[in-house]
Amino acid sequence: MPLFPNYHRAPVTFVSAKNATWFDDQNQAYSDLSSGIGVYNVGANNPKVVAALTKQAEKIWHVPNLYLNPLQEQVAEKLGGDSYTAYFANSGAESNEAAIKLARLATGKSTIISFSNSFHGRTYAAMAATGQDSIHAGLPMLAGFEYAVFNDINSVKTLLTDDIAAIMLELVQGEGGVIPAEPEFVKALVKLAHDNNILILIDEVQTGMGRTGTKFAFEHYNFEPDIFTSAKGLANGIPVGAMLAKNVLAPALAYGTHGSTFGGNPLVMASANVTLDVLDNLLPELQTKITILWQKLAEFNHLNVVTDVRGLGMMAGIALTIPVNEVVSDLLNEQIIVLSAGQNTLRLLPPLTIPTEQLLESLDKIKKYLSEK
Ligand SMILES: *Cc1c(COP(=O)(O)O)cnc(C)c1O
Fold this sequence. Notes:
This is Acetylornithine aminotransferase. By secondary structure, the chain is of the alpha/beta class.
């Protein structure tokens, strides 16, 4: 085998896709409720994205960050408006690395408080910020990371010292099991951070780009983070990451402190730019689909093997009493693509553009499968 064994790969080869339908090399159609792990938010091979990419590919793909890049400025403006400054990377983990570096440089403090069950990526600082022992296993960790209990404000208070640079969290924990932050917890956290001169760093890598029904999840919680990161859905499948911070923090990432060869190159920025436009048009109508989704998901509460149904917007978790990995592979055999999260949670991240009928049909199939367990 020429590939490392670090992934479990299901025995299927996908060769093409259109919106929420993927096709394998036998020309079998699959219904996608995963968005390729939260990436295809505006649908696979979205025609507007394909057109923008094709057009840009014919002009120029790569321009290093030694020269002006108006496309980056346009995307930055669409992501953060007038009050945020942007840096572009190539992945979620890399955006979080930049965010952690900025928080430390801007405050002169070193400790980052993150949370149990969190997931921030696999590079070193992002991995250290991730509050899961299994992800740290067998490796020495970076210093300067402390872990509080998610949704427990007192657990944060006990970690306070005068060396806390930032509190870092996902507003809906994705990989950890689709666990939404409680509004009261977030409110208390924002106040605690404000009172103690600590930055709030929100990882919107999975929750961003319309996933929860608003462009970013922090809009549901009525506050503006000091720093936030985006990646997965940002360019609808072209690798990208972004770190945004309040303008006042911008000088801390001074000349020479950070950089990337590919970060924000014209090809990926053309994709992000049009993805953001498509999203702007789609978000006002998305609420209807979300309401229908949660009406259907409420029916899952009655199933014997279901212990909880939770999430926000187009991000849903169904906690199960049966091994979730088997469920994921059985459903793949039924040509439905779903994900797992945490120990026992079935995770659904359908493309925001999935036709409502297809969504309901796939959910009925999942419900039938689970009801027979
Ligand atoms: C996926 C994910 C990451 C890591 O993103 P990569 O692009 O895989 O590096 C970080 N944070 C969250 C919340 C994620 O869901």
